[in-house]
Amino acid sequence: MNERDDIAVDDVFATRAKALFDESVDGLDGETRSRLNRGRQKALAEAATGGFRWMPWAPAGGLAAAAVIAVVIFTGNPQFAELAVPEVATDMEILLTEDSLEMIEDLEFYSWIDFDAEASDNEGPANNVG
Amino acid sequence: MSAYAGSFAVSCVARDRKEVDTLQREARLNRFFADVEKRALRIAEISIRDRDDALDLVQDSMIKLARNYAGRPDAEWTPLFYRILQNRIRDWQRRQAVRNRVMVFVGRGKEDDDYDPIATAPDPAGRAPDEELQNQEAMRGLESAISELPGRQREAFMLRTFEGMDVAGTAAAMGCSEGSVKTHYSRAVHSLRETLGEHWQ
C-alpha cells in the first residue's frame, strides 16, 4: 500500500469512527441530557454572578479529611507499617490536595488575567488554562 | 437640558449597552455549551470509562470556562473548553491511579469494573436491531482500542475525529505544537487500525 492509499484508508477509518461516535452521542438517554442541561445552567449562573467565592474553611477541611483518612488507614490495616512511608505520603498528598490545587489554579488565573488585561485582545488562547 | 442630566443620560445608555452585551454573551455561551456538551461528555466518558464522573468533569469545565474565560473571543471557546476538559481528565486519571493503589492496599477494589456505557445507552431511534447491535459492537471495540492508546494520542484522535477540530485548534487545546498533533493523530489512527483489524470497518 503506497502513502496515498494509506491516507485514504485513514480517512475512511476516521469517517467510520466519527459516524459511530455521533450515533452514540445521539443515543444519550434523557437523564444524561437532563444532567448536562442542569450543569450548563449552573455554569451560566456562575458566569452571571462572577462565581468566585473564597472558602476560608477549605484548607482546614482538607487537613481534617487527611487526618481522618490517615487514622482509618493506619489503624485499620497492620500491613500499612510495611509500606514505604515516602510512597504513602506522596499518594496521600495527591489524593487530598484537591482544595489547595483549586486555590492555586485560581491564583494562577488571577495572575494571568492581570497580565492579560494589558495585552491585546487579538492574542491567541491562553496557555495556562484549566 | 443641564450638563448633569446629559451626563446621567449617557451613563444610562452605557449601562444599558453593557447589560445587553452581557445578555448576548450569555446567550452565545448557552448555545456553545448546548452544542458541545454531549460530544464532550462522550469524549470524557471514553477517556475515563465512567459516565457519572464524566458528567462532573464536563460540568466543572463549563463552570471554569464561564467563570474565567467567557469574556474571551467566541472563536477561542472551543480550544479553551477542551483544554480545560483535558486537564480535568488527566487530573482525574492521576488521582484514580493513586486511589486504586490505596484501595487495593486497604483491601477494597473498584466496585463498578463492569461498567459498560454502550450497554446502558438506549435505542437512539428507528434502526434495525441487527444494524444497531453491529454498530454498538463496533463502537465498543473502538472505545476499548482508544482507551489503550497513550494519553496524547487519545486526545489528538478524539479532538480531531470526534470533535472535528482543525490542527491549530487541537494544538491549542492540547497545549502542544501543530506538528505534535499531526504525529500523535497519525500514530493513533495507525494503532487503532492495527488493533481493530481490517474487518472492523
Descriptive notes:
The complex is a heterodimer of chains A (130) and B (201). Chain A has 130 residues and is an all-alpha fold. Chain A folds into two domains: 1-51; 54-130, no CATH class. Chain A has helices spanning 3-26, 30-49, 58-76, 85-95, 98-118. Chain A is extended, with a radius of gyration of 24 Å. Chain A starts with a helix and ends in a 12-residue tail after the last helix. In chain A, 13% of the residues are buried. Chain B has 201 residues and is mainly α. Chain B has two domains: 1-115, no CATH class; 131-201, Winged helix-like DNA-binding domain superfamily/Winged helix DNA-binding domain (Arc Repressor Mutant, subunit A, Orthogonal Bundle). Chain B has helices at 3-48, 51-68, 77-106, 117-120, 129-147, 151-162, 167-174, 178-196. In chain B, helix 5 packs across helix 8. The model of chain B has no long low-confidence stretch (mean pLDDT 85). Chains A and B meet through helix 1, helix 2, helix 4 and helix 5 of A and helix 1, helix 2, helix 3, helix 4 and helix 5 of B.
